[in-house]
Predict the structure of Glycerol-3-phosphate dehydrogenase [NAD(P)+].
Amino acid sequence: MANVEKQPSIIAILGTGVWGSALGKLLSNNQHQVLFWSRSNSTTLTEIIPHSSVIVSAISIKGVQSTINKLKNLNLTPETIIVTATKGLDPDTTKTPSQIWQQAFPHNPVVVLSGPNLSKEIDRDLPAATTVASNSVVAAETIQAIFSADLFRVYVNQDPLGTELGGTLKNIMAIAAGVCDGMKLGTNAKAALLTRALPEMIQVGTHLGAKAETFFGLSGLGDLIATCDSPLSRNYQVGYGLAQRKTLEEILSDLEGTAEGINTTQVLIKIAHQKQIAVPIAHQVNLLLKGKITPQQAVKALMARELKAEFHHLDGK
Ligand SMILES: NC(=O)C1=CN([C@@H]2O[C@H](COP(=O)(O)OP(=O)(O)OC[C@H]3O[C@@H](n4cnc5c(N)ncnc54)[C@H](OP(=O)(O)O)[C@@H]3O)[C@@H](O)[C@H]2O)C=CC1
Ligand SMILES: O=C(CO)COP(=O)(O)O
């Protein structure tokens, strides 16, 4: 349990989409002063950053680097804690958001916030839990203290990469789960899909330097369950639409907000190719997103894979 006092802080939230807004509401409820910034409002970063002891980024991955470029001229104090809540991978560098933030601000503590946190449920004051992870235990505990509330339980861990990859990779699996439900393949198929999704995520995560155990926590298994079983998830909605034989363009024109899994699938396929990692579910999702196969062909391909031992993945082979 954190030993940090819950003193009111001034906190900048970058990104006023649904997640940034929900995080801002949680912080305001805890009596913190929240200063919002987005590329489309009139408040400038210069007005809010010098006053803020914590910066929370809830910007889609495509805007992370450009926002960092704007912040770099502002000379952050080394005490300023950067919290990243983005669940994506940079398409050019394949880096995670926390890696991009840490590279840009090497002297600042960076904390990853990730968990089963569908923003619409949090906005409705339903109970939820999340994880804050950092190489700096003090920074993670500070963020735990500022966010913790009666209806928002916050855990800490020291595997920011694993925490971030859990929340990021499950978006690919949520697309697959949406396809599975949209095709009405049944509960057995859904259970098999999600159970095989977890070792696929672990396989990628451990290759990239994350700890396997992190994927059994809130940001891995927890977020996999939440997102793959909820029509509130935008990634799930993408998969559901694909199962109805809609084009990606049609699906995106009706979608509220960002479905990071589309970009993440492409980036993961690049990583998997470079590092020779088997990612059978992500591979089928990628072909589906590109319109190269039908949902039926994706199911057939997964069912027809070479027979193997169940736990082969977890020993790192
Ligand atoms: N919604 C949820 O339940 C959760 C979402 N997340 C993650 O949080 C991130 C944001 O998601 P969410 O709020 O739902 O998405 P939204 O689409 O609602 O909001 C995206 C935000 O990113 C900003 N943005 C997009 N592109 C750029 C850019 N090029 N430069 C600057 N800002 C940009 C948008 O600004 P503008 O408004 O000006 O377009 C907006 O503030 C995603 O990575 C998502 O995976 C994590 C946990 C829960
Ligand atoms: O990450 C989320 C919940 O934890 C939100 O999922 P979507 O981005 O698919 O809506």
About this structure: The mean pLDDT is 96. DSSP finds 14 helices and seven strands in the chain. The longest strand covers residues 128-133.
